[in-house]
Design a protein that fits this description.
The chain is an alpha/beta fold. 25% of the residues lie in helices and 14% in strands. About 28% of the residues have low confidence.
């Protein structure tokens, strides 16, 4: 009988001990964290000052040897200021019909710029101001008591300028009346003004009374 070749069994080779681990290619090495250093100085907020730095020590100057002090020269006598005693004059061109409105606008401007109401005296050469007509209805004693109180704007007839006391600002409204009466009242109004005289009226007429320099 023919001999049948023996079937060789497959040999099993033993693998290395334990599974073989392949390092992952996608993992990156961790970056080391920076070591915390000193914090920067805080920036001061707007409007709030930061901490004041100490001033460097002042250097001492060498002490000078005291010597004789020269006598100060005698001051020359100064002449009194003329502009402090003479009030300023301001002319606002206006017709007789619009002089009272111009005076009212001047008073409003004075109050808006900080002038106290008791500093202002308003004189009218023609029809009286409505406030004056209203207060006179209670009698002249009560009317002039308001003038003497001096805590509000006072309106009076230019013919009564002699009775009115002085105030820092006098506003003269040439809103009519006789030319001679205006010519007589304007110089007196100038003496009643401590700092400023405002004249509302015809420039030619006012200049003829107070001078061409107005």
């Amino acid at each position: 009988m023919p001999l049948t070749p023996a079937i060789e069994e497959p040999q099993i080779h033993e693998s290395a001990q334990g599974p073989r681990v392949t390092p992952a290619a996608s993992r990156t090495a961790q970056t080391p964290r920076p070591v915390p250093g000193p914090r920067p100085a805080a920036v001061p907020r707007p409007g709030r000052p930061g901490p004041a730095r100490p001033a460097p020590p002042a250097q001492r100057a060498p002490q000078a040897t005291p010597g004789p002090v020269p006598a100060a020269p005698a001051a020359a006598p100064t002449a009194p200021s003329v502009s402090a005693a003479v009030p300023q004059i301001q002319l606002i061109p206006a017709s007789a019909e619009g002089a009272l409105d111009a005076a009212e606008e001047a008073v409003d401007l004075l109050l808006d710029t900080g002038r106290a109401p008791g500093d202002i005296l308003v004189l009218t050469s023609g029809d009286p101001h409505p406030w004056a007509a209203h207060e006179l209805s209670f009698g002249e004693a009560a009317y002039w008591a308001l003038h003497d109180a001096g805590d509000d704007v006072f309106y009076a007839d230019a013919a009564q300028v002699q009775r009115a006391g002085g105030r820092p600002v006098v506003v003269f409204a040439a809103n009519g009346g006789a030319v001679d009466a205006i010519a007589g009242a304007l110089p007196v109004a100038l003496t009643r003004a401590g700092a400023l005289l405002i004249v509302c009226g015809d420039p030619q007429q006012i200049n003829s009374v107070l001078g061409a320099g107005v």
